[in-house]
Amino acid sequence: MLLMTGLILAAVCLAALWMADPSIPQVGDASLIATGALPSSTAVVSSTSIDTGVRSGVAIMQGVEMLLTAPALTTGQLPDGKTMTYAIVHSANADLSASVALDPAAIVQTGAGGVGAAAATVRFKTPSILARYVGFTVTPSASGTGDASGATGTLAMLF
Prior knowledge:
The structure is a single chain. This protein is mostly beta strands. It has a single domain, classed as Jelly Rolls. It has one helix and nine strands; from the N terminus they run H-E-E-E-E-E-E-E-E-E. It has one helix at 2-20, and strands spanning 28-37, 45-46, 50-51, 65-70, 83-91, 100-110, 120-125, 133-140, 152-158. The protein is elongated.
């Protein structure tokens, strides 16, 4: 009983220390999430966009991070040796046309071992100057990639 109480107390203290660090964004906003179905062929796909509400070229608030999440993929969605490359992009256009990559290879999933690829996440700190709309693109291997259109990636802004 004493050991369990000590473990619970240690977990609470670690959680309090982690939450007390203001340099680690923790909170998201449901309206600030971009989603996108993955490719069904070799074509690049774009997510929906997050409207930051700022005019292009205007400094945004510091300490904002984005959390990009790539789903787990089966071997039918991502065969051995094939890749899905996720880029975090920004654009002056809501449809992310004419976008510029902030991180061109934020996540690269590679099918391996006949099991597809594991889910992956990455945090990305926003630059001080950002276009109004942010989102992500997914670029599959040039050939032989399976149909991953049943899977969805997400990009969320954290504060």
